[in-house]
C-alpha cells in the first residue's frame, strides 16, 4: 500500500488535487488554440478517453479570446499555458481559464508575476509553477549543464524562487511541476521539492520522446515517484496523439494500484510450451476490453490469460477470471474454481461474456 505524501489541496474547476484526492490525469491539446473547432474536437476525444484536466497553449491575444468559446463547449477544466507575456495570463483569467500555468524561466519580473497573482486570487483559480529544464537549465554555464546535480538544483531553485514570491503576495493556491527530459534529474527534483514544501505536485517527464521511448521514460519517472507517495496529478508527454497520453497515464496508475480503470488483463509472454495463438487471443481480448471498459469503468477485475499448464492454472485461479490453455483448448476459471473447458477459437467470446456478467463482491 502506497502512503501518499500529505499536501495542501487545490481545486481546478471541479477537480480536487492533493490531500488524498485521486491522482488526476492531464493532457494538452496539439492543435492551434485559435482553431476552436479542432481544439474542441480534440478535447472531446480526450474527455472520452478519461482525461480529467486539459491544457491549451496560449501564445496570442486571439488564443485568450478562444478560451471563452472553448470553455463553454467542454466539460473538463481548462488550463491556460502561458510563456513570456504576463498580459496573456491576465487575459486568460478574464476569459475564464480554470488554472494558469506559468514558467518561472520565462516570466521573471516580480511586478508581472504579482499582477497575475492578483488576478488569479480575484478569480479564485490556482496557478501551476511549471518549471521546465529547457528554460532553466539553459541559463546555467555550459560546463554545469551536464552535471546532474546542477540540473536538479536549477529546477528546484527556480521553483522555490517563484514559491517565495507567491507566498510574499499571500498566494498559496499553487501546484508545482519540475520537469526535465532526463528521468533521473526529474525524479531527484521532485523528491527534493517534496521535502521543502507541502504544495501538491504535478508529475511529468518533459519532451519524453516518441511513443515507445516516451512511455518507458514516463513510466519510470512518474512511476518511481508515485511509488514513493509523491505526486498528485500526472501528464505523460508523448510526441503522439494526446489520447495516447491519457491511455498511458491510466496504465501507469493502474500498474501501481493507485487507480483502477476497468478490468486489468494479465497474460504470459508465451514460450515453446504454448500451443495456441496466445498473442492473437490477447490482442483481440484487449481490443474488446477497451470497449467493455467504457461501459463498466469501475469494474475492478483481474483477468489472466495463460499459455500452458506450467504457471497457467495458478495465475488463472488467482485472478477473478482466468484461462489456462493446453492444446487447442483452455480451462476457464472463475473466482479460483474451474468452470469448464473451452475451445481456443471461442476463448475471446467466452471471456467477454463472463466479464460483462461478472458480479463484483
Ligand atoms: S505460462 Fe506456460 S506458455 Fe506461458 S510463459 Fe509460462 S511456461 Fe510459457
SSE order and pairing:
Layout lengths: L9 E3 L2 E3 L6 E5 L7 H14 L3 E6 L2 H13 L4 E5 L3 H10 L3 E4 L7 H14 L3 E6 H4 L5 H4 L2 H21 L5 E6 L3 H14 L5 E2 L7 H17 L5 E3 L6 H14 L8 E4 L10 H18 L6 E5 L5 H7 L2 E5 L3 E6 L2 E7 L3 H11 L4
Parallel strand pairs: 3-4, 3-10, 4-5, 5-6, 6-7, 7-8, 9-10, 11-12, 12-13
Antiparallel strand pairs: 1-2, 13-14, 14-15
Helix pairs in contact: 1-10, 2-3, 3-4, 7-8, 8-9, 9-10, 11-13
Bound molecules: iron/sulfur cluster.
Describe this structure in words.
By secondary structure, the chain is α/β, with parallel strands linked by helices. It has helices at residues 36-49, 61-73, 86-95, 110-123, 133-136, 142-145, 148-168, 183-196, 211-227, 242-255, 278-295, 312-318, 347-357, and strands at 10-12, 15-17, 24-28, 53-58, 78-82, 99-102, 127-132, 174-179, 202-203, 233-235, 264-267, 302-306, 321-325, 329-334, 337-343. It has 2 domains: 10-255, Dihydropteroate synthase-like (TIM Barrel), CATH 3.20.20; 264-357, Sulfite Reductase Hemoprotein, domain 1, CATH 3.30.413.10. It has an 8-stranded parallel beta sheet. Helix 2 (61-73) links the parallel strand 4 and strand 5. The longest helix has 21 residues, at 148-168. The model has no long low-confidence stretch (mean pLDDT 91). The protein binds iron/sulfur cluster. Iron/sulfur cluster is lined by residues 268-271, 273-274, 306-308, 310-312.
Amino acid at each position: 500500500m502506497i502512503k501518499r505524501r500529505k499536501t495542501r489541496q487545490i481545486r481546478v474547476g471541479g477537480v480536487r488535487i492533493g490531500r488524498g484526492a485521486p491522482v488526476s490525469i492531464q493532457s494538452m491539446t496539439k492543435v492551434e488554440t485559435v482553431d476552436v473547432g479542432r481544439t474542441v474536437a480534440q478535447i472531446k476525444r480526450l474527455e472520452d478517453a478519461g482525461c480529467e484536466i486539459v491544457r491549451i497553449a496560449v501564445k496570442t491575444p486571439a488564443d485568450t479570446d478562444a478560451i471563452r468559446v472553448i470553455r463553454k463547449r467542454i466539460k473538463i477544466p481548462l488550463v491556460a499555458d502561458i510563456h513570456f507575456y504576463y498580459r496573456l495570463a491576465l487575459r486568460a483569467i478574464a476569459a475564464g481559464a480554470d488554472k494558469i500555468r506559468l514558467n518561472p524561466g520565462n516570466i521573471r519580473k516580480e511586478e508581472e508575476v504579482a499582477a497575475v497573482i492578483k488576478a488569479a486570487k480575484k478569480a479564485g483559480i490556482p496557478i501551476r509553477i511549471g518549471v521546465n529544464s529547457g528554460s532553466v537549465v539553459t541559463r546555467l554555464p555550459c560546463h554545469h549543464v551536464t552535471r546532474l546535480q546542477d540540473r536538479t538544483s536549477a529546477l528546484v531553485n527556480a521553483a522555490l524562487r517563484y514559491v517565495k514570491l507567491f507566498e510574499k503576495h499571500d498566494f498559496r493556491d499553487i501546484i508545482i511541476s519540475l520537469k526535465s527530459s532526463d528521468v533521473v534529474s526529474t525524479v531527484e527534483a521532485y523528491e527534493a521539492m517534496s521535502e521543502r514544501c507541502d504544495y501538491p505536485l504535478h508529475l511529468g517527464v518533459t519532451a519524453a520522446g516518441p511513443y515507445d521511448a516516451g512511455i518507458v521514460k514516463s513510466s519510470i519517472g512518474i512511476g518511481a515517484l508515485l511509488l514513493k507517495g509523491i505526486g498528485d496529478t500526472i501528464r505523460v508527454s508523448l510526441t503522439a496523439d494526446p489520447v495516447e497520453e491519457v491511455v498511458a497515464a491510466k496504465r501507469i496508475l493502474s500498474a501501481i494500484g493507485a487507480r483502477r480503470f476497468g478490468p486489468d488483463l494479465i497474460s504470459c509472454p508465451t514460450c515453446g510450451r504454448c500451443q495456441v495463438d496466445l498473442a492473437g487471443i490477447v490482442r483481440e481480448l484487449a481490443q474488446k476490453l477497451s470497449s467493455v471498459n467504457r461501459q463498466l469503468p469501475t469494474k475492478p477485475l483481474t483477468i489472466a490469460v495463460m499459455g500452458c499448464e506450467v504457471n497457467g492454472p495458478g495465475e488463472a485461479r488467482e485472478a477473478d477470471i482466468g484461462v489456462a490453455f493446453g492444446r487447442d483448448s483452455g480451462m476457464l476459471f472463475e473466482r479460483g474454481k474451474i468452470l469448464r473447458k473451452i475451445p481456443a477459437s471461442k476463448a475471446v467470446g467466452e471471456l467477454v461474456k463472463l466479464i460483462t456478467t461478472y458480479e463484483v463482491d
